[in-house]
Design brief:
The protein contains 14 helices and 22 strands. The protein has 419 residues and is of the alpha+beta class. It has four domains: 2-94, Rossmann fold, CATH 3.40.50.20; 119-181, Dna Ligase, domain 1 (2-Layer Sandwich); 186-313, ATP-grasp fold, B domain (D-amino Acid Aminotransferase, Chain A, domain 1, 2-Layer Sandwich), CATH 3.30.470.20; 323-418, Phosphoribosylglycinamide synthetase, C-terminal domain (Glycinamide Ribonucleotide Synthetase, Chain A, domain 4). The strands form five sheets. Strands 10, 11, 14, 15, 16, 17, 18, 21 and 22 form a nine-stranded antiparallel β-sheet that branches. Helix 1 packs parallel to helix 10. The chain is globular. It starts with a strand and ends with a helix. It binds adenosine monophosphate and glycine.
Length: 419
Amino acid sequence: MNVLLIGSGGREHALAWKLAQSPRLDTLYVAPGNPGMAAHATRVALDPADHDAVVAFCGRHAIAFVVIGPEAPLVAGLADRLRAERIGVFGPNREAAQLEGSKGFTKDLCARAGIPTARYVRVASPDAARGALAGFTLPLVLKADGLAAGKGVIIATTPDEADTAIVTLMAEPGAELVIETFLTGEEASLFVLTDGTHLMPFGSAQDHKRVGEGDTGPNTGGMGAYSPAAVLTPELMQRALDEIVRPTIDTLRRDGMPYSGVLYAGLMLTDGGPMLIEYNCRFGDPETQVLMMRLEDDLLELMLATDAGTLGDHAPARFADEAALTVVMAASGYPGQVAPGAPIAGIEAAEATGARVFHAGTRLADDRLVASGGRVLNVTATGQSVAAAQTAAYRAVDRIDFPGGFCRRDIGWREVARG
Ligand code: AMP
Ligand code: GLY
């Protein structure tokens, strides 16, 4: 079968690499992709926001299945349109994608279904927001309602910071906020495939969101990740599935918006048990890179079953016992302004160590590889433990020649410290 993958980052490179191993695949197309994916897929220039163009492309190239990597096309209803055209899709329809597209939608769903999450209020004006602050102690958390590419959450530790956050997050007319209590604990990510009824646990990971070592500095899209996240013990995983994921999926189905795709639950492991921080309606980036390194099953097969509603007929997904760890190499200045075009060399030397280098933000300039985004490369390795995978990943990082970039040297530190 011919498959079209939508996206261009490290997540999509990892998905392309894994999809390309499927015996069910004939040709894999990726729109727009990046130079790293050229080994696994045919790159095509298609704008995912142009649904007519995507449908027309599928017709011309006999595409039977489309895998949507990023959240924006899901929130914009690309999956709905493809399903209406009888083209298979991996990813939820627009209404179900509100789990990521609207924080307020998710919080209201949690309240109705009794799902453990931070206490919250929704507000639709700066005055209402200021008025609501009295109901919270500091620190408190302010979240823009819609998609914000990782920039929509502010943790305020003083009344002044809360005031500034309201101004910043409500600058656009019509902006809405969720204000919620600050949760303490360790964060972990849980992935689940679901066809709306059945659910299949799909691995765990821990991400490093802050730009600086020791988890300091501004938030980013993620500076590295490892899998599995041992803090999410089998008992905590089961509680998260029973108390958070299962009621979410059941509620959406009963509300007439069944969720089909991967559900990514960002959890806080509090003293009282796992609580939901947020949902994403797509795979994590860079969590996907470590999950794909460990996945032992045919990804395409599982995605097809997700769309067909037959996940219940499948044995649980199998992941290697070994750990995987990925280090993000970013362009200098990230997550602020970066100068594009910095040259990159040494990827073959890095891969010769046994690691895998996924491209996140690269392009070719006169046949030379250069940086084209904030997060540029995801240097990924496996090992018998997180510590061993960390050593292997940094051995490969050190073979890469990217003077215009930087990386954190401590990815996996919590797990390595636990021994
Ligand atoms: P989100 O975009 O919702 O994932 O939030 C980004 C980050 O903000 C999360 O990964 C957490 O580190 C932090 N965060 C969000 N909500 C809370 C909360 N209620 N309590 C503590 N930290 C939070
Ligand atoms: N790494 C965080 C995310 O994908 O949202």
